[in-house]
Amino acid sequence: MLTKLPICCSICKPQYVVVSAPCLLFNPEKPKYMRCPFCSSFNDRVLDTRPLDQSSVVRRRRACGDCKKRFTTYERLEEVSLMVIKSDQRREQFNRTKLREGVMRACEKRPISSDAIEKIVTEVENEAQDFVMEVPSRILGEKVMQKLFSLDPVAYIRFASVYKNFGDIDTFMAELKKLRKEFSKNKKKDKRK
Ligand SMILES: [Zn+2]
């Protein structure tokens, strides 16, 4: 029986899924928590550990401490493919290129360097990894908006207009008003410095 466990090790972050073992990177010694396929107890002992396939797979021969039967497990690291939960609950694989394209479109012809765009995409991608395996698209959109907001008001409003899908001129104007207020507040703050 194979179980997929996202790594929740505080040291190597949940960037991998380990099949049938706890964190391999930080604790390569004795993976525990393997359920005996015969009696379901968690009281197993590793008899033999053998790397296979240039160490991308580790094979372990185990003995159950309760029913004494033996079984074999294979452990391998898999890259987590982060899934994005769309507003209609459909899931699609996280796509960095798509995220970057969205940000780039908003930043078109603005005085924003490619480095700044890359930085936003990387930050959002990293922050999304805090969600183990699934992240709502709403969160990704909001994170991008937060970052654009402090970077460039025009890019922000462009992104927000696509993302928030302003249905009418009133909601759009309300957003602009809010932005103007924030912007002049920030300007005053800057002057005081
Ligand atoms: Zn057993």
- Beta percentage is 15-25%
- SSE run: EEEEEEEHHEHHH
Oligomer: single chain
How many beta-strand runs?
8
The largest sheet is: 5 strands, antiparallel
What coarse outline follows from CA principal-axis ratios? elongated
Query: Helix share of residues?
Result: 25-40%
What bound compounds does this protein have? zinc ion
**What is the CA-based Rg, rounded?**
24 Å
Cα distance spanning the termini: 62 Å
Catalogue the unreliable spans.
19-31
Mean pLDDT: 78
- State the secondary-structure class: alpha+beta
Overview of the molecule:
Helix content is 40%, strand content 22%. By secondary structure, it is α+β, with helices and mostly antiparallel strands. A five-stranded antiparallel sheet has the order 1-2-5-4-3, with no helix packed on it. The N and C termini lie far apart (62 Å). Helix 1 crosses helix 2, helix 1 packs across helix 4 and helix 2 packs antiparallel against helix 3. About 7% of the residues have low confidence. It has five helices and eight strands, in the order βββββββααβααα. A hairpin with a 5-residue loop joins strand 6 and strand 7. It is elongated and about 75 Å long. Zinc ion binds next to loops.
